[in-house]
Design goal:
The protein is of the alpha+beta class. It is about 25% helix and about 30% strand. The N and C termini lie far apart (about 85 Å).
């Protein structure tokens, strides 16, 4: 499916960004999706979880930002943008039926947060013992 392929690509992209940042685990992903009717939030989350399974992105918090699609009203030709599912969109000017005239088929990672391996402080050698005096 189209959505599955897009989301698989997004997870791959997130994992690539994680490696580039020397991370070992992804804690948060901000995903940008075009509101085009392909995805609902539930579907997007399901596909993300499926593709992230058994990868360092598995438990990442997914945040979705929707890019609005453009609609034009059949009745009054008013043009407007909406992030609602196409079947729920009506013209804000006259309440008429609106037709989607343009959308960005977008699915990309805007931001990730990664967890890095904790750097062990190798140089905390015990301070040299100062043998004090000893004279009596
Ligand atoms: Zn209208």
């Amino acid at each position: 499916m189209h959505e599955a392929a897009m989301m698989r690509g997004a997870v791959q992209e997130a994992l690539g960004q994680m490696s580039a940042a020397d991370g070992t685990r992804i804690t948060r992903v901000v995903l940008v999706l075009g509101a085009s009717g392909h995805f609902t939030e539930d579907v997007a989350r399901q596909h993300f979880a499926l593709n992230a399974l058994a990868t360092p992105a598995e438990n990442a918090v997914l945040e979705i930002e929707w890019l609005p699609a453009t609609y034009s009203c059949f009745a009054c030709l008013h043009t407007f943008a909406s992030v609602l599912p196409p079947e729920a969109v009506t013209c804000p000017a006259c309440g008429g039926v609106a037709l989607e005239i343009g959308h960005a088929d977008v699915c990309y990672i805007r931001e990730i947060e990664v967890e890095k391996p904790s750097v062990a402080s190798e140089f905390t050698v015990p301070a040299p013992l100062h043998v004090s005096g000893g004279q009596s």
